[in-house]
TrEMBL record:
GO molecular function, one term: iron-sulfur cluster binding
Residue span, B12-binding domain: 1-133
PANTHER family found in the cross-reference section: ANAEROBIC MAGNESIUM-PROTOPORPHYRIN IX MONOMETHYL ESTER CYCLASE-RELATED (PTHR43409), METHYLTHIOTRANSFERASE MJ0865-RELATED (PTHR43409:SF17)
Pfam family, any one: B12-binding
Official protein name in the record: B12-binding domain/radical SAM domain protein
Required co-factors: [4Fe-4S] cluster
SUPFAM superfamilies per record: Radical SAM enzymes
Residue stretches making up the Radical SAM core domain: 166-405
Lineage: superkingdom: Bacteria
Keywords: Iron, Iron-sulfur, Metal-binding, S-adenosyl-L-methionine
CDD domains attached to this UniProt entry: Radical_SAM
């Protein structure tokens, strides 16, 4: 007898893109499931209770700073809906990097790596009643509470799955590139998605735009680690490939349609900002700003973090972007490991110089994120003097960001890292 499987999503604004990709994978695989959304713990519990399926996958996804709050929510949902049909699965970067922490925090399963193939295989295994140990990309709890890993989840070409499923409420940005060839030591992207670019084909992007316009929507945005790397395997942009993409999107859009590229939710690397690149964007895009990753004004810290550029290309990028009619939003991270007072002064001086040129500074605090080379690194101390300087920039309207909140997250992440020393989880083959 086939088991009827339902899906309840703990639906949070911060992680909708990843969840949409999973639902799109189920849709693309022709897996028909009753799908429900819970936007609060109470709603999630009510949806579990209301679901008519024999087995229910409850999908959770969160970033590392939210892990503690989500574990508290999970406990609340279990309390409200103590349902033997439910299997709570956590996916995303935190679950991938810290499966033992996720299992200890109360989830039944941790999804490891890219989830599209895993969710399809998981639903099929539950339907057929076959062991979950054969599903790739999972960590399961053994009798001793140890997180046992199944085989690795595949990393198929990006065209294998759409970025979002058909219903209007789940339409979002199109993921055009996954993985990153750069090796910034604070970043989870290469660890989660691999150290090379996988680009979506122009034909697949066209198909997504048709889905968007079929709903009467007119704005197209993209997800990519580095916008101007589209179509390129290496460090140099391929502007012909970028133009082919943008002109195809323009062709698919109605006359009032708008393209947002190099702005939220993606960014560009500073050394990719050239007059030719900016003029190309100006011909196609509706955004008046671009997001540039600078991260530090100290060449020493930039080198230690593996960014692959110094401070001068950041200055040049802001000048070029402003000259070509864009307002740059420039990301900075304060408190990177090994950063000293001289480095922080260099960052503050560069931030102030860029603000005078017309940029807005997006301030962040370094967080030792799981899975990154700097997971166990000690965040540098940020003295009161630096904090006051950042506040002054914000008061002038030249800076924005949640750097104070991130400082709290940073301390909590360091605590978790100490509680879960790096070790290879046991694997069941
Ligand atoms: S910070 Fe950007 S460029 Fe660096 S590894 Fe992450 S995604 Fe790639």
């Amino acid at each position: 007898m086939t088991v009827n499987v339902g899906v309840v999503v703990r639906y949070r604004k911060a992680v909708t893109y990843g969840v949409h990709a999973l639902l799109a994978a189920l849709e693309a695989a022709g897996t028909e499931c009753e799908i429900r959304f819970g936007t609060t713990p109470e709603e999630t519990a009510a949806e579990i209770t209301a679901c008519g399926a024999d087995r229910i996958l409850v999908l959770w996804s969160f970033y590392s700073p939210d892990a503690e709050a989500m574990a508290a929510e999970l406990a609340a949902v279990r309390e409200l809906a103590d349902d033997p049909r439910a299997l709570h699965v956590a996916g995303g970067v935190h679950a991938t990097a810290e499966p033992q922490h996720v299992i200890d925090s109360g989830w039944d399963l941790a999804g490891i790596g890219e989830g599209e193939s895993t969710i399809v295989a998981l639903v099929e295994a539950l339907r057929a009643g076959t062991p979950l140990t054969a599903v790739p990309g999972l960590a399961l709890r053994d009798d001793d509470g140890v997180a046992l890993r199944t085989g690795p989840a595949p990393q198929p070409p990006l065209d294998a799955f759409p970025s979002f499923p058909a219903p209007r409420r789940t339409v979002g940005p199109i993921e055009i590139t996954r993985g990153c060839r750069y090796t910034c030591r604070f970043c989870q992207t290469p660890f989660m998605f691999g150290g090379r670019f996988r680009h979506r084909s122009v034909d697949s992007v066209r198909e997504h735009v048709r889905r968007i316009t079929a709903h009467g929507l007119r704005d197209v945005r993209f997800i990519t680690p580095t916008s101007l790397s589209y179509g390129s395997p290496g460090p140099d942009p391929d502007l012909d490939a970028v133009e082919e993409l943008l002109s195809a999107v323009r062709e698919e859009l109605p006359p009032h349609g708008r393209i947002f590229f190099g702005s939220f939710p993606s960014e560009v690397r500073p050394e990719h900002v050239t007059p030719a690149a900016m003029r190309l964007l100006k011909r196609y895009v509706a955004n008046d700003n671009i997001i540039i990753g600078a991260q530090s004004g100290s060449d020493r810290v930039l080198a230690a973090s593996g960014r692959g550029h110094g401070a001068d290309p950041v200055r040049a990028a802001v000048r070029i972007a402003v000259a070509e009619g864009f307002r740059p939003n420039v990301d900075f991270i304060f408190g990177m490991p090994g950063e000293d007072a001289t480095d922080q002064r260099a960052s503050l001086a560069l931030a102030s110089e860029l603000a005078d040129l017309g940029a807005r500074i997006h301030t962040h605090t370094f967080m030792p994120l799981p899975g990154t080379p700097w997971r166990d690194a000690e965040p540098a101390f940020i003295p009161l003097e630096t904090m006051r300087a950042l506040d002054r920039l914000a008061q002038r309207g030249d800076a924005y960001g949640h750097w104070r909140k991130q400082a709290e997250h940073s301390a909590r992440l360091a605590e978790t890292a100490r509680a879960y020393p790096r070790r290879a989880p046991r694997r069941r083959v």
